[in-house]
Amino acid sequence: MPLVSIIIPAFNSENTVKETIESVLNQTWTDWEIILVNDGSQDSTLEIVNNINDNRLKIFTYSNGGANASRNRGLSHASGEFVSFLDADDLWTPDKLESQFKALQENPEAAVAYSWTNSIDETGNFLRRGSYITANGDIYTKLLLIDFIESGSNPLIRRAALANVGDFDESLAAAQDWDMWLRLAAQYHFVAVSSVQILYRVSNNSMSANILRQEAASLQVIEKSFSNAPQSLQYLKKYSIGNRYKCLTFMALQRNPSRKQGIIAMKLLIYTIKNDPSLLMAKALLKVFFKIVVMIIFSPEQTQYLITKLNRLLNIESFLGYIKLEVLSINSNSL
């Protein structure tokens, strides 16, 4: 019986699924099985995976149920003592499983090991670095503020812990991975592998590209999580909302430019400032506001040209630096 079960939900993933599976085949740790759940794909996904010759790859086909249902279906077929999820467009570095398994072996009190993440574009080129946050032990408070795990393709999890906290929430249209990590962190310790081992692919066609769906689901997760959090942590709620809106604003401004996207970004920015008025003093706010105005006023082609020509002026990477990773509890007395 394999020690690790890797669950890959795949829906119309013909352009990326082979490379994703190859990143598992190239792992230095080889005691694993792949549970690939074909979620009613209408393209050549099934044909591609059927042509991969490795008896550790097990394929299950269902009618389309969405990513959450696919992960839960995959879990029902998994036999490993440890489980990791991998989206069909993301990649792992060859040492991912071995490093995370070693971390769990060296920290038996931990139930989850996670690594750092970088983003890549649709062609696999480096796009931007992740947050590179290292947190060990009880990470619940910090995870309430920001999802620094950053990807559903990241952690290696003890199967017993997953069984205890329950399935992925199929009522969520997005942010289901953050919800799962929070439920795990509420009961178990985490251990970090301080190395980039997950390559998260940013695609305009991916589920995460729907910003408004991300917004609604993120607010659901925050409400759900804080309804279960102790009273002593309730003061963090508005900071959690503010952080999420900063991330959503950034995401909206990194997609293909359009007037509609600019208007959405403006709405998100207003909610960001509402939840974190200190941003009004931030220098990066001017860049964000200027980029929004450019997207609203100019055509997509003109906006893209200006982004290229005025890169330093329209580069908003520094905006993410205003995410609050820690908030002193003394603030709760004045909220």
Radius of gyration: 20 Å
- Mean pLDDT across the residues is 95
Output the CATH homologous superfamily of the largest domain.
Spore Coat Polysaccharide Biosynthesis Protein SpsA, Chain A
Number of helices: 13
Number of strands: 9
Distance between the termini: 53 Å
Instruction: Give the low-confidence spans.
Output: 330-335
Helices and strands, in order, run as EHEHEHEEHEEHEHHEHHHHHH
CATH class of the largest domain: Alpha Beta
Stated plainly, the CATH topology of the largest domain is called Spore Coat Polysaccharide Biosynthesis Protein SpsA, Chain A
What features would you describe in this structure?
The protein has 13 helices and 9 strands. α7 packs parallel to α8 (211-228), α8 (211-228) runs antiparallel to α9 and α9 runs antiparallel to α10 (259-275). The protein is 42% helix and 17% strand. With 335 residues, it is an alpha/beta fold. It starts with a strand and ends in a 21-residue tail after the last helix. The chain folds into 2 domains: 4-208, Spore Coat Polysaccharide Biosynthesis Protein SpsA, Chain A; 230-334. The chain is globular.
Salient structural properties:
disordered C terminus, 13 helices, Spore Coat Polysaccharide Biosynthesis Protein SpsA, Chain A, alpha/beta, 42% helix, 2 domains, 335 residues, globular
